[in-house]
Specification:
Layout lengths: L2 H17 L3 H14 L1 H5 L2 E3 L20 E8 L2 E7 L5 E3 L5 E3 L12 E4 L3 E3 L4 E2 L5 H6 L7 E5 L5 E2 L13 E3 L4 E3 L5
Parallel strand pairs: 1-2, 1-6, 6-9, 7-10, 9-11
Antiparallel strand pairs: 2-3, 4-5, 7-8, 11-12
Length: 186
């Protein structure tokens, strides 16, 4: 399958998991795995995403008050990173995603972890998102030192995704039952 076919297929698969009531339990399992990991325990600054529709909901991580959380904001074709804590005002962007109204951070090197949404991912830590390239452009930033973690249901994990030069791999994949590290990082 090409990228567009994979995108469509795994969006439908994730929607089916959502309709069957599975996404809540999958999200909770992934939150628990992240919270128990050494990279989370040692991290101070973590970027999450606000879930839309059938996406995994990892907002339970916000209960860790010893961490600083951030969310992506889409501005002029790019991601900027804005602080977020429970109770902060959110606004709905043009893609139907809630974003914080706080001022963007200037220094991306402060981020320790970036939890990255995907429709599917492969065992080489490549991902397919919604096709706009926001995260690939963001990950190309030279100041970014954070561990990039893809979160997907195990049902959306594949052996291989067709990649292009601009596709940026992540460091880890976390599903409800396993963690996969990028084989090139080992």
């Amino acid at each position: 399958m090409n990228k567009e076919e994979l995108r469509k297929y795994y969006k439908q698969k994730r929607d089916e998991l959502y309709k069957a009531g599975c996404i809540f339990n999958i999200s909770n399992s992934i939150v628990k795995k992240i919270a128990e990991s050494e990279y989370f325990k040692s991290a101070k600054n973590i970027m999450l995403f606000y879930p839309k529709g059938s996406e995994l909901n990892l907002l339970e991580l916000l209960k860790f008050k010893d961490k600083n959380f951030y969310m992506p904001v889409c501005k002029e074709g790019e991601i900027v990173v804005c602080p977020y804590k429970e109770g902060d005002k959110l606004i709905l962007n043009g893609y139907g995603i809630y974003e914080p109204e706080t001022s963007p951070v200037k220094d991306l090197s402060i981020l320790d972890i970036i939890i990255t949404p995907a429709l599917c991912a492969d065992i080489n830590c490549q991902r397919i998102g919604y096709g706009k390239g926001y995260y690939d452009r963001f990950f190309a930033n030279k100041n970014l030192k954070a561990k990039k973690i893809i979160v997907v249901p195990k049902e959306c994990l594949v052996n291989s995704i067709p990649c292009e030069d601009f596709d940026k791999p992540c460091d880890l994949i976390i599903t409800q039952d396993k963690t996969i590290e990028d084989p090139k990082q080992s």
